[in-house]
Amino acid sequence: MADDTERIEQEIAQARENLAATLDQLSDRVSPQRLADDAKTRAVDTLNKPAVKYTLIGVGSLTVVVLVRKVTRRRR
């Protein structure tokens, strides 16, 4: 009987340790800083893809040209 009690207490202690480790892992995964860092990394990776990068450069250049033409027409 005493052996059963000790074994059960050890199992409970082990379960608590496992639960604490799991909670630590979960809190690390959902920390705001980690989520922000992951989002930033994904955004930078996406923006560095050639298709996205050159499309944004083209759209930016076109926007500048349109704005410059609009400003020069108002001055006339």
- The radius of gyration is 29 Å
Determine the fraction of residues in helical runs and give it as a percent range: over 70%
Helix-strand pattern, N to C?
Answer: HHH
Largest sheet: none
Report the average pLDDT across residues: 92
User: What characteristic shape results from the CA principal axes?
Assistant: rod-shaped
The protein's oligomeric status is single chain
Distance between the termini: 100 Å
The secondary-structure class comes to mainly alpha
How many domain regions?
2
Number of strand elements: 0
- SS field, number of helical segments: 3
Low-confidence stretches: none
- Fraction in beta strands: under 5%
Describe this structure in words.
With 76 residues, the chain is mostly helical. It folds into 2 domains: 30 residues; 45 residues. Helix content is 92%, strand content 0%. It has 3 helices and no strands. 0% of the residues are buried.
Keywords:
76 residues, 92% helix, mainly alpha
Please outline the helices and strands.
Elements: H1 2-29, H2 32-47, H3 50-75
Would you summarize the structure shown here?
The chain has helices at 2-29, 32-47, 50-75. The protein is mainly alpha-helical.
